[in-house]
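U., I forgot to send this yesterday:
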Amino acid sequence: MKKIKIIALSLFSLTGCITLSGNYEVQAFDENGTQLQGPRMISQGSGIYTAKNVLCQIHPNASIKVINLDQNIEVKNEARHCQNSTNTKPVPTQSTAKFEAPKNFTFSDSNYQLIFQNSDTIKATYEYTTHNETVNNWSKLLTIHALKNSKLSAQQYANLQMNQLQKAGFNQNPQLSSQHDAIYLSVTYLPTDLKSKNLMASTYEVNVQKIFAQCKPLITLSIAERLPADKASLETTLQKTRDTLMTQLAANPWKPFCS
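Result:
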């Protein structure tokens, strides 16, 4: 759902020092060639190698492609298969197979409708907006992720995401906390192009995620809100927005069926 940008400086290989330049997007695909959902990996230069490793942690059965954004072509010699990639589809576990996402969702007295869903070998994704907003042009977005065949605990999954955020650029103030039977991860994503008409690139995004510890594999619920970069008292507004979303998410009574 989010834009995570990773910047690295150089890479040493068996053939010597390789220096790449330009902008790249690293993408993950399942065995059917369907692109897997998840954070958008935009890298500069040899930062693609860090991005590949992060994507393989998220999608251990994936195939990886690298796209040169400056030339809009695939860099075929940088393609790879993650370590656990196979030609067989994993069988959904009991909890994932039984999980059914709601068509409508009430959050903080607002009604959200399901506008996008996708399922791959790693997880199922469900996205909700309110006020008839689209999946790309939204002010607030609810997202449910139902992981498949993951053996990670809620804490391990939260720590993995924190590690990715700390390695990446274009985000600030990632924080972890726990309440009752859930772990919360909050982060503010920074704009990458203030002049862009694409809201994902030109706005701040405050994102708070709730990881339900009782579900195996894990199920998460996230709420995100976009704020314009020219917002008055921006830093104060970002912090207040984060605190408000955290309070609303903790108070929301929805719990997934994951027996």
